[in-house]
From TrEMBL:
This is Molybdopterin molybdenumtransferase. It catalyses: adenylyl-molybdopterin + molybdate = Mo-molybdopterin + AMP + H(+). Pathway: Cofactor biosynthesis; molybdopterin biosynthesis. It comes from Saccharopolyspora ipomoeae. SUPFAM superfamilies: MoeA C-terminal domain-like (SSF63867), MoeA N-terminal region -like (SSF63882), Molybdenum cofactor biosynthesis proteins (SSF53218). It is an enzyme of class 2 (transferase). CDD domains: MoeA. Coiled coil: none annotated. Belongs to the MoeA family. Residues 47-57 have a biased composition (Polar residues).
Amino acid sequence: MASTSAGNAAPVVEPHSSVLSWDRARATARDAGEALPAETRPLDGAPSQTAPSQTALSHALAAPLIARTDLPSFDTSAMDGWAVSGPGPWRLTGGEVLAGDAPSPLAAGDAVGIATGAPLPPGATSVLRREHGRVDGERLADLVGGRSDGQDVRPRGRECSQGEVLLPAGTTVTPAVLGMAAAAGYDRLEVHRRPSAELLVLGDELLSSGPPRDGRVRDALSPMLVPWLQGCADVVGCRRLPDELDALREAISASTADVVITTGSTAAGPVDHLHTALAELGARLLVDSVAVRPGHPMLLAELPSGGRLVGLPGNPLAAVAGVVTLAMPLLDRLGGRSEVENRTARAGDLLPHPGSTRLVPVLVRDGVAQPLPFGGPAMLRGLTLADGLAVLPPSEGPLPEGDVEVLPLPWG
């Protein structure tokens, strides 16, 4: 590590030496790592009060989810009523078939009561809904008529067949995926390890409580970024640091996270020490400024430890731009997640920048993306109402008619 004492000048790195396009920067971030190793995790289990849940939830599938059985695995009743064999009227055999039963065969012309989800007796041809039947002694009549074989029956294999690929590798395990996996016969899933992330929030001007005062402002990034990052990473720490080179360099050097994320200090101001700290640590810059508004002074570096560092600008909306441009593509790749297909919408009153991609908080109504007010780099008000961020390619004039890409937001 280089000394910063008098007589030993610290290395100086000129920021923004090679500005990348927005598309190129995202691709570089995605290519800056490989999916972390696979592990098997249970579908359910009580999470610890002090550690992340050990289940597969929120991880990415490391292998396709393949059905281990037909679903349903047997013909079942879709309604409460009677299982019937052949055309009516029918003779009632007595009793009722419930879910979990192993029913006896049904002879032609017979009927037996059945509950929704119960297995269809061998020999049954359809189900008569309770509201469509009339019982007279031991006889059952159809009040509606026009019956067909298989009516109100969920046939075996209707949802999937054994061996069918239900979900591809790279799919994020949601609560719905856990339910599907359980239905398909799984107790554990093979998933990629989630990357670890540490957030370092820089700035002497930041307050941790109360309203802004005495020239200082609230730290708005920690409350927003930590839960955002938790969606795809295990956040192992969040610290606020002063605008001091030594403190920043030591915090980066000491971190064991797969990805260190910093806020602020990415430009070339008098207290912007990130470039110098990275140079002293021997880091390699992969991205150093991006042609995007807001947020152009963002960066991505490879640390000597093998980890990565994403430097976000300090202004709140600019930091959001850095997250979607560099942090999320990198974290998704490390976590083995498939690339998200962004939605499109028709462009409303959206104004591009002549030389940079613009990311604009928008509302999407009736398929049209309209900009929200309060979309400046230091503002979050527009983002709170946004359905996503419209991606406006550089243009000297108004956007041509057509669709624009809209990046999803985790809370949208």
